[in-house]
Design brief:
The complex is a heterodimer of chains A (about 240) and B (about 180). With about 240 residues, chain A is of the alpha+beta class. Chain A has helices spanning about 5-60, 65-75, 115, 155, 180-230, and strands at about 80-85, 90-95, 130-135, 140-150, 170-180. The relative contact order of chain A is 0.14. Chain B has one domain (about 1-170). The chains are: A alpha+beta (about 240), B mainly alpha (about 180).
């Protein structure tokens, strides 16, 4: 294969074109995945903010029943893996899964350690730092956001349940969203890119083969036929030029 | 006169035989050099695979990215590194194909391993090696594959030409005509 003229023409072209296409696809895939991941984080952060805003009045009024109902309803939404609110000590106060209530959250767990790795916990995180991805016990890929519930003047001054003004964070909302849909889209994109690369390879090899055959192999074949024929008969006319 | 010519002839023949032998030895040395040179592409590819294995394991002997970025400053973003990688891959393939077309003997394979290792390191210090590992690996396999093929075909053609030259020297005792 490597010794023939066709092999010498096709191997470097095929290798270079396919390799370059594959690198382009891999980089493009990485960029698209990164963009989708960022969009997903922004979407989840917005969702966490909406939940916090929706529950703010119930928290302010210390209406635990309304708060629990909101959390339960959000948790029943399709694509929501978990939703819970835990207090400053790390004890789950509200959760869509009733078994989690009053359980202690491990401060060294992924998602908690980001703020709790120092003796004094960090109270402000960027949007991207609030996110973490992991597999839940059901084997589902989950992207979770932890949004702090900040102390505000009307919380610390409320008559019902006063929080000291010096306490910056009252608790944390933790919401996890399934990544199944995103993984499915990325899987489809991967297959499309592989098909695109294979098609490019076939087109390149086909194109080069067709051009070689038309411009090189057929004229050489005609020349060989003519040479063989002229050996037998000396008065043969020369082959037509450009045919 | 006739006697003198008869005495000189064996000396001329011996001189011609010696120079033909010297020529033959020179060509054989050149063939050996080309044989050694033909493995250069494969050696570079093997070295790149070793570097890729280390990158796959996350460069366990290197300090953590945070320690290095604290010293040297923030690493460029993954997107910038990817754009540079794409441009580099394109240029390297074009250069290699041009050298192949011009039948130039060029020893560039190991420098490509250096450039590709630098890309692995930039992604590692930018904490995006996991997402971009296969892009660098694909780029390396493509560039070094084309380079290996170029070097191998160049050496194979040169060796075949040198073998014809040896036959010519053995048959005629004269140096082969220059192309």
């Amino acid at each position: 294969m490597f010794a023939t003229l066709a092999g010498k023409a096709l191997v470097p072209v095929g290798l270079a074109v396919t390799g370059f296409m594959a690198v382009c696809c891999l980089i493009l895939y990485s960029v698209i995945r990164d963009d989708l991941h960022r969009s997903e984080i922004v979407h989840a952060t917005n969702l966490a903010d909406i939940i916090l805003k929706s529950t703010r009045y119930a928290m302010h009024k210390s209406d635990r029943e309304t708060l629990a109902t909101i959390i339960l309803n959000v948790g029943e939404q399709k694509g929501v893996s978990h939703v819970r609110i835990f207090n400053k000590k790390g004890i789950v106060s509200f959760s869509a899964k009733s078994g989690e209530i009053n359980s202690q959250v491990d401060k060294n767990a992924e998602g908690c350690i980001v703020c709790h790795k120092l003796p004094v916990p960090v109270t402000n995180l960027g949007t991207m730092q609030q996110a973490r991805t992991f597999k839940n016990p059901d084997g589902m890929d989950v992207m979770a956001i932890t949004a702090p519930v900040y102390n505000e003047p009307d919380c610390s001054a409320a008559a019902c349940h006063i929080h000291p003004p010096g306490q910056k964070v009252l608790g944390t909302l933790d919401i996890g969203l399934s990544r199944a849909e995103l993984d499915r889209s990325l899987g489809m994109l991967r297959i499309e890119m592989i098909i695109f690369t294979v098609m490019s390879l076939i087109l390149t090899i086909g194109g080069v083969t067709a051009l070689l055959r038309k411009n090189l192999f057929l004229p050489v074949q005609r020349l060989r036929n003519y040479a063989e024929f002229s050996e037998k008969k000396n008065d043969t006319p020369p082959p037509r030029v450009g045919s | 006169m006739t006697d003198m010519r008869e005495h000189q002839l064996p000396a001329d023949i011996n001189e011609t035989r010696d120079s033909a032998e010297v020529l033959r030895q020179g060509i054989i040395r050149e063939i050996n050099r080309l044989n050694r040179f033909s493995t250069r592409g494969i050696l570079a590819l093997s070295l790149f695979i070793v570097v890729s294995v280390l990158a796959w394991r996350g460069f366990p002997f290197l300090p953590a990215p945070d320690a290095v970025t604290a010293l040297l400053g923030k690493a460029p973003s993954a997107r910038i590194i990817s754009i540079v990688l794409l441009l580099y891959t394109f240029s390297a393939i074009i250069l290699s194909l041009s050298r192949m077309a011009a039948a130039v003997e060029h020893r560039s394979s190991f420098s490509h391993v250096g450039f590709l290792t630098a890309f692995f390191l930039f992604y590692y210090f930018g904490k995006s090696l996991e997402e971009n590992y296969w892009a660098v690996f694909g780029s390396g396999i493509t560039i070094l594959g084309v380079e290996s093929y170029r070097i191998w075909t160049f050496c194979a053609e040169e060796i075949s030409r040198k073998k014809e030259a040896i036959e010519f020297v053995t048959r005629t005792g004269r140096p082969p005509p220059q192309e």
